[in-house]
Each structure stands twice: as C-alpha cells, then as structure tokens.
Amino acid sequence: MNLSYGRQLRVSVGDEWQGQTIDSVEEVGLAVADVSIRPTLVRHGDTLAVAFYDDSRRLTIAHRTVASSDWSFQKIDSSVGWDSHNYIDLGFDKSGRLHVAGNMHASPLQYWIVDLNDPSRETCRLAVLWQAEKEQKVTYPRFLRDDAGDLLFTYRDGTSGDGDFVCLRWDDDAAKYESVSDRPLIEGKGKRNAYIDTNAPILGPDGGWHLLWVWRDSPDAETTHTVNYARSADLVNWNDAGGRPLGHPLVEDARIVVDPVGPRCGLINNNVRLGFLPDGRPMAVYHKRDDAGSQQIWGAVFNGDDWTRRQLTEWDYRWDFSGIGSLDFKLEIGAPVTTSSGVLVDVRRDEEVQTLALSESLSVTSQHPASPWNPLRRFHRDGGLYDRMTRGRDWAPEDSGTEWFMLHSSVPEQRDRQPAGQAPAAQPMVMVEMSRSVTG
User: Fold this and answer.
1) Are 67 and 93 in a shared domain?
2) Residue-level pLDDT at 14
3) Which member of 68, 185, 277, 332 lies 3.0 to 4.6 Å from 348 by CB, making a disulfide possible if both were Cys?
4) What percent of the chain has pLDDT over 70?
5) Same domain, 309 and 420
6) What are phi and psi of 382, to 5 degrees?
7) In the listed set 149, 180, 211, which residue is the last one of a domain according to the structure?
8) Residue 318 sits in the same domain as residue 174
9) How confident is the model over 49-100, as pLDDT tens digits?
10) Sign (positive/negative) of CA torsion 252, 228, 264, 350?
11) Based on the number of CB atoms within 10 Å of its own CB, is 360 exposed (0-12), middle (13-18) or buried (19 or more)?
C-alpha cells in the first residue's frame, strides 16, 4: 500500500528511512479529528492493541495478532468531547488481560478490563480500584510494568494546582489493586500539584525507580515552577539524588530541587524529561527563559554532590504561554536516549525538529535535523489539521527489530473547547510497520 497522508507525509512499502524499511502500511479505522488526542499503540507478545476515539467519538480498542491483517474492534461505552486531557492508556496484567483507562479530566474513574482472547466475554468495568473517594477527580492515567512483570497504574487525584500523585499495583491472583503504600507518592497538600515526566516513574539502569517533576500552584500554566528529582528501590521509600532519605509522601523539599525555576520563568509541564548518562547518572532536560527573556533548553546532571546545570541553546525565541486548558505547544522535548558517548535529545521549536547530541558533561557536540519518523514532527494540512505520528511501545522489554507507528490527524489543542466553525470530519488512522534494514 502506498499512502499520501496529508500534503507532506508520504509513505510507501519498501521506503527506507535512516536504517529502517517500511514493511506495511494499513488503515485501522476512522478517528475523531476535532479534538487533539493521540491514539495509544501497545504490543504485548503476539498482540497489537490500539486505543482511540472513533468517528462516533466512542472509545474503541482495535486489536490483532502481529502476523494477521484482520483487526477486531471492541467499542466501550464512553464518548469523548473536546478535552485534550482525555487521553487513553493501555496495559497488560500477567494473565494477558488488557487494562484500559481514559476519557478523564478531574472526573470520576473510567477503567475497563478486556479479555482479547475471548471476544465473547463482556468488557468488565471497574467502579473502584482502591478507594472510591480518591477516584473522583482522576487525570493522567498511566500503566507501567515493573521488573517482575507486575502491572502498575498511576494517576493524579485532584485538580491542577491541588492534587496528589497516586500509584497502585495489580494483584493478578486476587484480581484487584493494592496501593503501593498507604499514602500518595507525591502530595500537594492542597497548595500545588506535581506534573511528572509523562514516562515516569522510570526504571533506571540501576534497577531503581526515578521521578522527575515540576510543581504548579494553580491551573494557570504560568505558575509552573521548580524542577525536582527523587529515586526509590520500591516506590515507597524515596531518596534524593545523593542517597539521603526523604519523607513519604514526597512534598516540597529543598533536597529534591534540580533547578529552582520560579513561576512565570518559562518552565512548563510535559517538557521536563528524565534521562541517564552512559555511566548511569540521572539527568534532566527542560526549558526556561534566559535573562533576555528568550526561551532556552537546559540540561542538568547530578555530579555526586549537587546538580550541575548547563544552557544547551542560544536562541532568540520566545514562547509566551498562560491560562488554563490544553495548550498548543510551540516547544516540545522528546525523551532522552542514552548512547555509548552521551545522550540524544529531540527538540521541536515551532515546526523544526532537531536532535541534540550531548556529551557526558552536557556539552552539545552536534545538532542535526531529526529523523523523518520522529514523534515530535507534525505536518500542516488544509482545513487547520495537523498530521502527527505516535510511536508504539512494547509492554515487555524485548527487541524484535520492528517498530510500529500510528499516523493520525487532528486540530491543534484548543484549550479543551469545541473548535470554532465547522468541525473537521473524522480522519483515517494508519499503522506503519518498520524494521531495520538489512545491509550487506
């Protein structure tokens, strides 16, 4: 199949991109396009599962085996409006059942378990996971897998500027959740809430859990401040970067500060990324404004005693953001990737995506255009739409030599409001399979 996806993104079977070959291109279905919510694609063993909102706005699970070309669909009784916070996440328990959570923004829990091996079984909705009173204002659902294969579920309990970060562990035998501890992982004490790196907690090269986050004191994005870090062996007992024990839950504390960026200084959630240098030391990448008011990318690395911070860019560029609701990000930072000599970090500024190569001292050793298949890329289309791509993830750590991407289209973020004028029609959602090219 050859596909012209919008005006700028064209893909064909057999095309090669930087050491990868496109093996297949297939349309999965129509997805709503008048709200910006990325589809979620997860591979578990021989199963591919995609979560999205279909052309009737219903939460939908499409699934098939890796070797098949026939998709099965399960419609869930939940429909999305225009809130870009209402994304969906997927995870698998040890029994192979698919867990689905989504369509929530400071709203009551919406959570289902789907048995993909038995389509005749009804989807099971869980009304309560742990404590009903802590599941009435749920946002940012996220499934994780620990080294033992246990399913973890994290979310924010509360609202922007007033919320706690919760982590639960699924008990397969009892078929229920247990709290990782008797308290939240991070507590805002009614004065603030934590916005963590969207991939965190992250299992680091030391086998421990690592957290990076910022605080926000109100729903206004300008009130984001202070980059923080902590690590733990068990998600219960936390230490600062130097190994000093911290209280539980994690709260505002000078010992965890990576960079004391103040409110209205250019720091924002979603653009605070945790990575690791080749020697295993944690590092942070984020942005803040310099003395001239320009937005700059910064890196910070723990040197054994304290955090060393370094400015990575020299831009004459300013992105002013404020207010509430989902923002159309003009800057975006990708997850750092560890290499043998340092770290690679992808950065989008407006529509330009660059890869920064950083040394172990956080010096920028090179800068070049990112891969065409970079998830930070987006392409303008007629009708006010963007073409975007989302990389699938493997639930269990494995290297199959194959990657899957979802191509999808939507309006930019609209501060969680219905777009003005005539809403764009649902758009095709396409999956692309890529494998490493074989060279002589």
Assistant:
1) no
2) 85
3) 332
4) 96
5) no
6) -60, 155
7) 180
8) no
9) 999 999 999 999 999 999 998 999 999 999 999 999 999 999 999 999 999 9
10) negative
11) middle
| 187 found inside a domain | no
**Spatial separation of the C-alpha atoms in residues 154 and 201, rounded to whole Å:** 9
Q: Note whether 277 and 353 are same-domain residues.
A: yes
The better pLDDT of the pair 28, 17 is held by 28
108 and 153 in a single domain? The answer is: yes
Q: Considering the domain boundaries, does residue 308 fall inside one?
A: yes
Q: Please, is 146 exposed, middle or buried when counting C-beta atoms within 10 Å of its C-beta (0-12, 13-18, 19+)?
A: middle
Do 383 and 366 share a structural domain? no
Could you read off the pLDDT of 295-304 as tens digits, one per residue?
999 999 999 8
How far apart CA 440 and CA 435 sit, in angstroms, is 16
Cβ-based burial of 181 (10 A; exposed 0-12, middle 13-18, buried ≥19): middle
Asked if residue 186 is part of any domain, the answer here is: no
Residues 216 and 256 in one domain: yes
Residue with tokens 């936390």: 238
Based on the fold, state whether residues 238 and 350 are members of the same structural domain: yes
Q: For 413-431, what is each residue's pLDDT tens digit?
A: 999 999 988 889 999 999 9
Residue range(s) defining the domain that contains residue 7: 1-75+375-440
Paired strand residues for 170: 177
Phi, psi of 83 (to 5 degrees): -95, 115
Phi and psi at residue 223, to the nearest 5°:
-85, 10
